[in-house]
Design a protein that fits this description.
mainly alpha, 6 helices, 76% helix
């Protein structure tokens, strides 16, 4: 009789522990998704300050595709490459004279390889 009561109490406690753990995980996952979405939104805003944003548009690559396909570290490297690029004038000229740019015409861009990968993946 005492063993049955102890077993029932143990099962109730174990069940409560499992339910609390599942609830905690659901809340943590939801919070992580919200934080990730906010980070991505802020990162997208930051990206618009670079010529890289115009280049993506000219190549027919949407910002969402780019952010989705490239790791954040790679995007940050591309932004750094863009900022330190010695070919700003040529880049501006290409982007100003053409609404769309072909990959063959961006050999001057330090992000050419990365942009090729993204464009191939989006086709």
């Amino acid at each position: 009789m005492l063993v049955d009561i102890i077993s029932i109490i143990a099962m109730i406690l174990l069940g409560a522990f499992v339910m609390l753990t599942a609830l905690y995980l659901a809340v943590a996952i939801r919070k992580n998704i919200r934080v990730g979405q906010q980070f991505r939104k802020n990162f997208a805003i930051k990206l618009t300050a670079y010529r890289l944003h115009k280049m993506l548009s000219a190549l027919g690559i949407t910002q969402d595709e780019y952010l989705h396909q490239q790791p954040i570290t790679k995007i940050m490297q591309n932004m750094e490459n863009c900022q330190q690029c010695p070919n700003h004038k040529r880049c501006d000229t290409e982007l100003d004279k053409n609404k769309t740019v072909l990959l063959e015409n961006i050999e001057f861009c330090p992000n050419e390889t990365s942009l090729r990968q993204v464009q191939v993946a989006t086709e």
